[in-house]
Design a protein that fits this description.
The protein has a single domain, classed as Elongation Factor Tu (Ef-tu), domain 3 (Beta Barrel), CATH 2.40.30. It is 24% helix and 42% strand. It contains three helices and eight strands, in the order H-E-E-E-E-E-H-E-E-E-H. The longest helix is centred in the C-terminal third of the chain and has 20 residues.
Length: 152
């Protein structure tokens, strides 16, 4: 059985790390539905893909969460796309188009940060970057070293 705690990536945007409460992937097809008066059949005409997106509820926690929230805000407002890494999906370039930072009185040190990101590419599937490949190689090397160390 898969141990999810060992296989999830640390989430980040433009190198600013955060924890993820949930993320929702949106997508689909644009379809023009042609319905004719008095007709019994309709004609769906495929018009391409809708713009895909990620609706993420992130959180920052700890003594430096306020500074991390400021860095994440700066990263979200920076020009152009940035590298978005989510725990299950591979890293990819994306634009943060909308965000909300939420603090509550009774949760000092906990800051919620919700945002909508749209990937640079609307193609299906995640795009692996150099950092993802490096993490995979280093992870496999560490596992091999542990296995090799067990022989001695």
């Amino acid at each position: 059985m898969r141990d999810w705690t060992k296989t999830l990536r640390r989430a980040s945007f433009r190198g600013v790390e955060f924890w993820v409460d949930d993320d929702i992937r949106t997508g689909g097809k644009r379809v023009a539905l042609h319905e004719y008066a008095g007709g019994r059949h309709s004609f769906p005409e495929e018009m391409g893909l809708v713009t895909a997106g990620y609706d993420v509820t992130a959180y920052l926690i700890g003594d430096r969460s306020d500074a991390q929230a400021a860095r994440l805000t700066q990263a979200a407002l920076a020009a152009g796309p940035g590298r978005l890494v989510l725990p299950i999906d591979g890293g990819q370039l994306a634009y943060v188009i909308d965000f909300q930072r939420r603090r509550t009185r009774d949760q000092a040190g906990y800051i919620a940060f919700s945002f909508m990101a749209i990937p640079l590419s609307n193609e299906g599937g995640a795009v692996l970057g150099v950092a993802d490949m490096a993490a995979a190689v280093l992870g496999n090397l560490a596992a091999a070293a542990r296995a090799f160390g067990g022989f001695f």
